[in-house]
Amino acid sequence: MRATPLSVREARLTRYTHSVDYVVHYEIPPNNRAEAEAAFVQLIENLANAGFATEVRHGDKTSLLVFLKIASDKLLHQQVYRYRLQDWLYGVRNSAPNKDLSQYFHDEPISDAERLRLAYLLITKPKNEGGAGITPRNGQWRYVKSVFPLHDHKFNRTWLKQWSTKYLLDASDINDIRDRFGEKVAFYFAFLQSYFQFLVFPAAFGLGAWLLLGQFSWVYGITNCLWTVVFFEYWKRKEVDLAVQWGVRGVSKIQLPRSEFQFEREAQDPVTGEIVRLYSPFKRLQKQLLQIPFAIACLVLLGSLIASCFSIEIFLAEVYDGPFKQYLVFLPTVLLTVFMPVLTTILTSLAETLTHLENYETQDAHQASFVQKIFVLNFITSYLPIFLTAFVYVPFGKVLVPYLDIFRVTAQRFVKGTKIETEDFEIDPHRLTQQMIYLTVTAQIVNFLLELVLPYVKRKVFKAVKDVQEDTNGNAAHAKDHPEEAAFLERVRNEAELDVYDVTIDYREMVVQFGYLSLFSVIWPLAGCSFLINNWVEARGDAMKIAISSQRPVPWRGDSIGPWLNSLGFLSWLGSITTSALVFLFRKDPYGPDGFPWNVRVWALLLSILFAEHLYLVVQIVVRSAIDKMDSPGLQKERAQRFALRKQLLAETLGEAESEKASGPSVVSGAEKITREVLEEEARQASIKGHGAPEEL
User: Fold this and answer.
1) C-alpha gyration radius of the chain
2) pLDDT confidence bin for 668, thresholds 50/70/90
3) Could you say which residues form the signal peptide (predicted)?
4) What was the pLDDT predicted at 4?
5) Distance CA 412, CA 605 (A)
């Protein structure tokens, strides 16, 4: 594959359709054509110097598609060996790669995910490190719209067909995802599958509690809190197990540098002696402290909007009795629908800006900080409405509702001459349950439609409109395609317009859902049943989103679910507090207090919360200790590899000692003794932990 800038060569692409590594979608704006063309020439030169063969084809009327392929297997093998050697040096791998590459790659073949990951690194890493130095939409590469790998549609069809006919996913399904899309995506599906399997218990127990115990049962509350602890601690162990099995444990130590990092000075590393780029940790701390006013701003802005709409909804639904009531009750929903996305978008942009100001050296640190801010937004938007109902509306309703008369006074000014009628306020006994049902059932369905169905319909409509416009203007890109390439190029153009898949969005949905189950399921114990059904569909829907609605993701590696693990732990802990408070307030009367807060024994409420929290911490310690004593295939594999490595090193040491027997026979004897003692101790530790006899290793 070769390329001539801004021209389409006669060579056919059909023989490359199954070996293209990446596609660069390059934009050429008519008003900056000369500058874009000059940058395009530099793009092709950089790619060629980095070892890529390229071919160029037309995209739409203002863009080009550059097809990339690593030019030689030798270069690919060098990259694989280099990064596997790096893994060994950082302790990710237990043994160094074999220098005999032909035999080595036969024993440990290169997966699609590894090839694509290394190809992307070769595209994006700086030129002084052997890469092309191309960062999309940044600096001189601002005309590079995207760099993406092509979907394997044969695999995608088989994948979706298999999953649609299976009730449960197994390890081979997750491994297939890992080999195609990388460990980060595989970790999400592994988490989703483990979460789905664990949901069987709260779904079954919740159904029994709903039929026999009713709402706000302390038995259900304690059991549910215990379940959250067990799942959280189990998943922490499962992460380690998967990371070992996939050979990525500790890979987070090898972090990708951010091209946007702005260093202040360069200095010599006292350990390695290398020149490293530094940024003042005190300046970063000053920027990080801005997270406090950011959280306050989120709470004030989003909280004010939610509380205002909540108050308006209470007034219109339960106090107002004037004309058009049946229509006015939808006003709060309209206000939330209009203003919530606007505020969320603004605050998300602010979170991105603050994260950039913190100026992290690595992409992982940058992403972790951003996720922390997004979690604050999600927590407020997802849980504040039900917090207001449970802990404000029910216990303080009759005290606060008289202040809502301000809405009647305000409306009265617009309808002079007509008295606005009101009715006596009574707390809606079913409001809390109805709200929980909406959040755990209706909202899940709406989210699925917005996430999967709406983007598909929108994309089809926009594509149809675009095709009509191009055909009308007579400048359609496909008119210039060679017949042998037409179908392939049409598919690539469609993929170029797809959204980039972001696994963070899917993690966010599952963590928020876990929060509903942990914090509020004592209100409606059937929430577990709803989530069990939803997550079976969600796994298939997310697979469709990757295969159909998104560009194929760059297969990045990871050794965990990242900062979302801390979010799970926080929600699990907070669930012990909210559950105890809800059980205390509603245990005698499922409709809750009578709207007067002085009838609530505050000291008893605080005591129950304190007891529940300490009980949670004790249970967590016990569960963690119990799980730590359990074994797993991944940890067995890790110990076996370490044992074999130590045995090999000691054997090599003995071999060297044998060759020097004439000069030091006592050394041989000492080495033999050390070998025997070390191996016996290793075997003894393995037997104590129940990991099998040493001869099995």
Assistant:
1) 30
2) very low
3) none
4) 41
5) 41
**Contact in structure between 364 and 315 (CB atoms under 8 Å):** no
Which structure tokens are listed for 541?
A: 């829907």
Q: Identify the band that residue 10 occupies on the pLDDT scale cut at 50, 70 and 90.
A: very low
Q: Left (φ > 0), alpha (ψ -120 to 50) or beta: where does 371 sit? A: alpha
Average pLDDT over residues 628-657: 71
Name the nearest CA neighbour of 514 among 576, 442, 572, 581.
572
The three-state secondary structure class of 268 is strand
C-alpha to C-alpha distance for 641 and 102, rounded to whole angstroms: 23
Compute the distance between CA of residue 544 and CA of residue 494 in angstroms, rounded to an integer.
Answer: 16
Question: How far is Cα 14 from Cα 487, in angstroms, rounded to an integer?
Answer: 10
What are 179's two structure tokens? 């080999």
CA atoms within 13 A on the CB side of 424: 1
Residue 7: exposure state from Cβ atoms within 10 A (0-12, 13-18, ≥19):
exposed
pTM of this structure: 0.85
pLDDT at 553 (0 to 100): 93
Res 651 pLDDT > 70: yes
Q: What is the pLDDT of residues 192-224, one digit of tens each?
A: 999 999 999 999 999 999 999 888 889 999 999
DSSP structural state of residue 422: B
pLDDT (0 to 100) of residue 674 = 44
Q: At what angle do helices 153-164 and 527-544 cross, to 10 degrees?
A: 160
C-alpha distances in angstroms, 412 versus 151, 312, 407, 645?
61, 15, 8, 83
Neighbours of 170 (CB within 10 A): 9
Residue 272 carries which side chain, given as an amino acid letter? Answer: T
Provide the b/e sequence for 270-295 (b: ≥16 CB within 10 Å): eeeeeeeeebeeeebeeebeebeebb
Cα separation, 591 vs 695, in Å, equals 65
Show the beta-strand stretches assigned E in 200-328. 265-268, 275-278
Of 57, 183, 15, nearest to 478 by C-alpha is 57
| DSSP state for residue 109 in the 8-state scheme | P
Q: What is the mean pLDDT of residues 613-620?
A: 90
